[in-house]
Known about the structure:
By secondary structure, this protein is mainly alpha-helical. It has one domain (2-416). It contains 18 helices and no strands. α9 (247-284) runs parallel beside α13 (341-356). The longest helix is centred in the middle third of the chain and has 38 residues, at 247-284.
Amino acid sequence: xxxxxxxxxxxxxxxxxxxxxxxxxxxxxxxxxxxxxxxxxxxxxxxxxxxxxxxxxxxxxxxxxxxxxxxxxxxxxxxxxxxxxxxxxxxxxxxxxxxxxxxxxxxxxxxxxxxxxxxxxxxxxxxxxxxxxxxxxxxxxxxxxxxxxxxxxxxxxxxxxxxxxxxxxxxxxxxxxxxxxxxxxxxxxxxxxxxxxxxxxxxxxxxxxxxxxxxxxxxxxxxxxxxxxxxxxxxxxxxxxxxxxxxxxxxxxxxxxxxxxxxxxxxxxxxxxxxxxxxxxxxxxxxxxxxxxxxxxxxxxxxxxxxxxxxxxxxxxxxxxxxxxxxxxxxxxxxxxxxxxxxxxxxxxxxxxxxxxxxxxxxxxxxxxxxxxxxxxxxxxxxxxxxxxxxxxxxxxxxxxxxxxxxxxxxxxxxxxxxxxxxxxxxxxxxxxxxxxxxxxxxxxxxxxxxxxxxxxxxxxxxxxxxxxxxxxxxxxxx
Length: 479
């Protein structure tokens, strides 16, 4: 299992490092520069609004399906047809609820037009994630990995042509950006569906009402969890847009600061994709998950902390490189937001473990508390500090839920508290901070600064024996 996890994560990371950073830093950034912070902020606020209600498209079916198929492979043919039918019905519910809430909060005609397109994109993305969950459940990580980047690769091609292909004399419009996503999702969903139908030999969709009700009942705890997590992760730009007179601009600045964090978090998320079915299988077979959890946690925490500290101290250089306006505000916001990379990544380890164990009650309670913390801090800080206040709200909320999930996992699985390990991690963080301060004192170029820290990080990991050659050799040799 450790070897399968290690090789799967490497493949996921390789493909996504090749594709998704270019999408976010090449396409997404240039779209914001082309349309301006206010226009992009409008898009970003509506996107996050639609994303919060995304759970209505799924009701936790995807997470449930990954865990269920990993433990019961033979059920895939029975479930596929029924769940696809359910998702089509859920799309209708999603549209109705999203538009109703949009009407309540006062969206205008253009906002509704953009919302309609983004609702379609949310449905297509949800469909792709469900189809991929079947490949993940079957531990077919190569297929899942390829599908995980296909949509973004297509978006890069379509948006690249519109941005730099000189195929139109009109200025780039945000509607083109959304339409490029739609076409890319349609192509990816079609390829994934064809591959899965070929694997399962399904020939038609059938709606089985008792089966649908049973699946939804089993998935509802997952649905509540995803709704709460989406809310505390995505509510910040929505509150900025609604609470401030210049809300679109503030949301655009926040989007610019959040973009690089979003790209990095995606890499952490990819670790959890193979981790969920592997955890589920190990728990079913009553294998200890302590060793694999410790290994992944140490790697994730150590690497994300080094990245967060380094990028925070160089925030001004990075934002000036990416954007043509509002760089000072974006840099200040980013210097706070980027520290959220550490707790968010930690939740992808311990939250995934608790999900695989079906400890959804604990996760839902913690997520509800986290949402309350986030909203309260946003209401308190946004009127005075705008996007800076939202950045602090996000960091505090993410830190709380990460620590709480770790404590819950230790109690449920009776993990031993390794004080020596935590002491080593504290010393490691101090060394990373010292390295960054030394590079700042030397007034080196920011690229040289990042390269030096990039070399120092693995050296410190091995020197302090947080990760050893023996660990890597054991994973590679493991049968």
